[in-house]
Write a structure and sequence with these properties.
The structure is a single chain. This protein has 578 residues and is an alpha/beta fold. The protein has two domains: 237 residues, Up-down Bundle (ABC transporter transmembrane region fold); 173 residues, 3-Layer(aba) Sandwich (Rossmann fold). A six-stranded mixed sheet has the order 6-7-8-3-9-10, sandwiched between helices. Strands 2-1-4-5 form a four-stranded antiparallel sheet, covered by helices on one side. The protein starts with a helix and ends in a 9-residue tail after the last helix. Bound molecules: adenosine-5'-triphosphate and magnesium ion (MG).
Length: 578
Amino acid sequence: MVLALFFLAGAKTIMVFTPFLYKEVVDRLALANTDPNLVVLVPVAIIASYGLARFMSIAFAQLRDMTFVRVSQHALRRLALETFRHLHELSLAFHLDRRTGGVSRIIERGTRSIDFLMRLMLFSIFPTIIEITLVTVIFLKLFGLAYALVLLAGVLLYAIFTFRITEWRSHIRRTMNKEDTLAHSRAIDSLLNFETVKYFNNEAHEADRYDDAMGRYQEAAVKGQSSLSLLNVGQALIIATALVIIMIFAARDALAGSLTVGDFVLANSLLIQLFMPLNFLGVVYRELKQGLIDIEQMFSLINTDLDVKDAEDACELTTTGGEIEFRNVSFSYQSERKILQDISFKVPAGGTVAVVGPSGAGKSTLSRILFRFYDIQAGTILIDGQDISKVTQKSLRRTIGIVPQDTVLFNESIRYNIEYGRPGASDKEIDEAASHAQITGFIKKLPEGYETIVGERGLKLSGGEKQRVAIARSILKDPPILVLDEATSALDTATEREIQLALKDVAKNRTTLVIAHRLSTVVEADEILVLDDGCIVERGRHGALLAQDGVYAAMWQRQQEAEEARLKLDVLEPGDKE
Ligand SMILES: Nc1ncnc2c1ncn2[C@@H]1O[C@H](COP(=O)(O)OP(=O)(O)OP(=O)(O)O)[C@@H](O)[C@H]1O
Ligand SMILES: [Mg+2]
């Protein structure tokens, strides 16, 4: 940065004094004209210095940019990284409310502006102010008070005009940003739902929605450009007026003989040279305003408070056996609607508890709050006797592995997605995990094997294959606690049975919370909780629950009948669901 400033000073100094060389040339030529008898040295040397000076001022400016780019790019990278990290720290609730397309747009605009602003602040505003001062002093010394006053008046008027108009324009910029973000969010959301759009033949509808957003952006952009043109015309008028007045002064004084022709030329060059960066200063102020507006959105992202925070004195979670306890837990996503009410249960270390119940009962919610994606409103969740809200989120999440209900994969290779469970795992370990999850057979069939790219969100794999990748990566993570949220729902009966065996093997010596629709998969659980509308309505072992002849027994009955009907129809291998 110091080096850049040095180059900047060099460029500016040479630039301000270049017109003096020019004046010298003009004066000598004029002298030669008026008095042909006078021997005038042909000012070749001076002309050459003039050329050199012009070249040097440009060269210094480029050196300055070359030096500074290191500083600005470094800062830019840090800021982008900071924002990215923060986005990953924000809660699930924040991300569910946001649109990914919009967020990425805000970051893009923000970082771009910051780079721009840093350069402008340092290299335009500061040096231009110095240049204005310098030129005013030169005018005062060489040409007198009147010149300096006109010059200052011009500069002031110019500044006031520019600031006023730019203030007025900034709301247009805000609208432009808003519409830009909206259009971008819509485009991304629509593309993410590509399949759905096709299923429902709604391309035209999607195009209309996008066009609608783009239309409003267009309107704002047109307004932005028109007001910008107005600003530019106004600025040009002020500059031209000041220039004309000073030139008239100089012409008069040149005729009167108190100034030489060279002085006249000098005044002109200095003015033009001064107004050039001044004009630029107008642009700078404008861009500064725009940049600040762009950045303010990014900073509001960065400043978004975390909903789920580590406690001040959070310590590491230490697991001994991995016992989970829910103690009178109540939870709701929004205060108006209760999801879980007064839930208490315990999964003994190494044991298995199953949660069953109708859709929307709050089963997956149990796993989300166990991971502390949300803070609960009442009660406590403990792991090995430690309140999970008092330990670091990092250590908590390290302890739990999950096979989620809908697996979403990264658009990378199968190997990458499995290795995600424990980055740095060896090929052998990956292969073992895959074979536990019964997916090696499938991988072998692929022409590119482990290197097959799974497509956006993993959509190039079938539901069952995705689920097995998810199982493999949880096996690789090897956590003391395992949550299986309908881990085998997307598999056909034969594969399901095999994986059940594998999972049983994996669950051995691990505390396991199983969420299941198919009751046949949970008959061996230490305890089965029947969850309905956020309350535990029945609990106990399979046999006891059947004997109770309540909700569970009825569910079991229904599923048995369905199973028998299926066997009768001999539909043994219905293939992957989903
Ligand atoms: N982020 C959220 N904001 C508001 N409500 C939510 C949110 N996530 C889930 N819900 C609601 O919470 C309730 C419980 O959801 P949950 O995912 O726990 O159901 P579930 O028992 O797993 O159902 P399923 O068997 O269909 O998977 C649902 O009614 C759902 O609409
Ligand atoms: Mg669920």
